[in-house]
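Translate sequence into structure tokens.
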Amino acid sequence: MNIKEIIKDAFLFPSKNTGRFAIYLLLSVLMEGFVLGGIFTYAFGIIDAENYLTGGIYLIISMLIGFIISGYHIKVIKSGIEHDNNVPVFELYEDFMTGFDNVLVLILYFIIPALIVILVGVGTNLFGNAMEVVEEFILQIFNVYIMGDSIDIAVNAISPILTNFLNSLAITITVALVVFLIFSILYLMAEARLANTGSLREALNIFEAAKDITRIGVGKFVLLLLAIVVIIAIIELILIIALTFYPFLLSVLYIILTPYMALVSQRALGLLYSDIA
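Result follows.
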């Protein structure tokens, strides 16, 4: 399929069964609600055993729902690979187990870039420079407000240390953006491989996942990603402009739009992967 056909199919796909999309929407809202409930319980609740238990229960429930949603994503990808125009049904246990595998793949794929970023941070002495900035900042506050030194002296003392920190931070952030982008793309291929084969081992074969991108065509892959991102951005911009004075309605539409676009993206990935499946 060409990019135009993939985009047209993907954007229409979730609307082909409004009942199943409504279930997906409900699960998404519930997951976000329990996440927020857990966060707010920890952030604003009284520090006691009961609140910690309640917050933990909220977060565990959100995680369990997240596994089901993640497993359903794999089904949507598989529907694209097989060119099945039927929106998948929910099978909670099966979706949960598939979602567990998918989350495991996600964690294992992102351990590598996380380790790379940590090593770069150590190599650039990011953490040591950060501590030096904090220590020097505290010292200069003491000198200015207790010892009566001028602010200019404090700034001159902090500037070279701050420059070292910012340089190491810039390098680390740049590397982080690059490696996380690369592994995010590889993870998309891992999801497609999991949907296509049902094999966790195949999904974790990072070298084959990289080869899959070249089999599909780097240009086609990148163009599809950019097209979907641009279309979603345009839709969101139109909503913001049109509903600036109706924040409640804008919020409701965002609640619907976000899950819809998630399914669009998964369907598009499946259709794209069908070229080599």
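Note: DSSP finds ten helices and no strands in the chain.
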